[in-house]
UniProtKB/TrEMBL annotation:
Belongs to the 'phage' integrase family. Residues 79-162 form the Core-binding (CB) domain. Residues 180-393 form the Tyr recombinase domain. Keywords: DNA integration, DNA recombination, DNA-binding. It comes from the Bacteria. PROSITE patterns: CB (PS51900), TYR_RECOMBINASE (PS51898). SUPFAM superfamilies: DNA breaking-rejoining enzymes (SSF56349). It comes from Treponema brennaborense (strain DSM 12168 / CIP 105900 / DD5/3). GO terms for biological process: DNA integration; DNA recombination. One of its GO terms (molecular function) is DNA binding. This is Integron integrase.
Length: 398
């Protein structure tokens, strides 16, 4: 897959590539991008910041061989100084790191390599790691968790690709993670948000609140994961590569059944066109190659448009992109007149808090959320109504 950048105006750069839905979605994430219908290419602002963002976004698609000296041509010959990125990504995937973790780690390694492109990779040490992590905070104002994620990505590279431990690991900067009380919607606020949503987006939001699933877990559901007989939803390969079960809200059963009927009609239309395939997890794609067209393996929430492999001509469907749902919920929160920093994940916080308010024990909530440590679940006890809001202020008794 090749992407070519070339100057078209003093302040803009053309982005040219053969059609690929993944690359197209990556380019669409760039601010101020423009499509030229007559010249058949995209263009973006000719700034170093935009070029860096474009390269990082393209890197996250995993469609490019970054072991090459210059994977993407651009006016400033911007390139990563790390020669082992393809090997790095392959090893992460072999260790069954999630797709999002692989993308995040690759992004940090590319940024690290670009920052120290003038230094041979064999000479990189904890000195460069510390400088990189410090600049993330002082120049880019990243959070402690983001800084620690970058550190984890770099340590993985040093340990498993270079085969060496940074000389003095004790001197490597580790950010102290701050503890935040989660934002929680009240029940009235949940209803108000639902009133602003409709159709598929409403159903997804109701599932997020009604089951406590993460957005990625909900969007990755397959038809076979909905167990109507036992009123249960099976969440496979959740965070930490763990499977778990959660309840299927009775109030949603009829709506989900109707939705699955519409998904089946869409799948049958795809099969009639000669396609109707989805990606299968891990080794199943080789072990059960024909299963990719089985209805049981289809996404519960498929995209409206099929993807197309420009090299093979194969077409299929992926699940709805998470960004679509995030934007819809954030807009619904604003339209409902709610002035909290709420998003899709806030439904998960609300699910846990409301269960605890209703008297369910912390261990049950822990199991439903899929937390390995009950300490993670304990954070929700800080936002219960019997907390500060349930205590009378001495000022009220003066």
């Amino acid at each position: 897959m090749n992407v070519t950048l070339f100057s078209i105006e003093e302040n803009r750069i053309a982005v040219s590539f053969d059609y690929n839905s993944t690359v197209l979605n990556a380019v669409r994430k760039i601010p101020e991008r423009q499509w030229s219908a007559t010249r058949k290419f995209w263009s973006v602002p000719n700034t170093q910041k935009t070029i860096d963002l474009l390269l990082e976004t393209l890197a996250e698609t995993h469609l490019f061989d970054y072991s090459a000296q210059n994977p993407v041509s651009n006016p400033d010959s911007v390139r990563c100084g790390i020669p082992d990125i393809t090997k790095y990504v392959t090893l992460l995937e072999a260790k069954h790191y999630s797709r999002r973790t692989v993308q995040a780690y690759a992004k940090w390694l590319i940024a690290f390599g670009k920052r120290f492109a003038s230094i041979p990779s064999a000479l990189l040490s904890q000195t460069e790691i510390n400088l990189f992590l410090t600049e993330l905070v002082t120049e880019k104002n990243v959070s402690a968790s983001t800084q620690n994620q970058a550190l984890a990505a770099l340590l993985f590279y040093f340990r498993y690709i270079k085969g060496t431990e940074p000389c003095n690991l004790a001197s490597v900067i580790r950010a102290k993670k701050t503890v935040h009380i989660p934002v929680v919607f009240s029940k009235d606020e949940v209803r108000a948000i639902f009133d602003q949503l409709s159709d598929e987006k409403l159903l997804i939001a109701q599932l997020l609140y009604g089951t406590g699933m993460r957005l990625s877990e909900c969007l990755c559901l397959r038809i076979q994961d909905i167990d109507f007989a036992h009123n249960m939803i099976i969440i496979r390969n959740g965070k930490g590569a763990k499977d778990r079960r959660t309840m299927l809200p009775h109030i949603l059963e009829k709506k989900i059944r109707a939705h699955i009927v519409s998904v089946k009609q869409l799948h049958q239309a795809d099969i009639a066109d000669g396609w109707g395939v989805v990606t299968l997890p891990f080794a199943l794609r080789k072990k059960y190659s024909g299963a990719s067209a089985d209805f049981a393996w289809q996404w519960v929430f498929p995209q409206k448009n099929r993807w197309k492999n420009t090299d093979t001509g194969m077409q299929g469907r992926y699940h709805i992109d998470a960004s679509i749902m995030e934007r819809a919920v954030q807009k619904a929160v604003r339209d409902a007149g709610i002035y909290k920093r709420g998003n899709c994940h806030t439904f998960r916080h609300s699910f846990a808090t409301h269960l605890l308010e209703n008297g369910y024990d912390i261990r049950t909530v822990q199991e439903l959320l899929g937390h390995s440590d009950v300490k993670t679940t304990m954070i929700y006890t800080h936002v219960l109504n019997k907390g500060p809001s349930g205590v009378s202020s001495p000022l009220d008794r003066l």
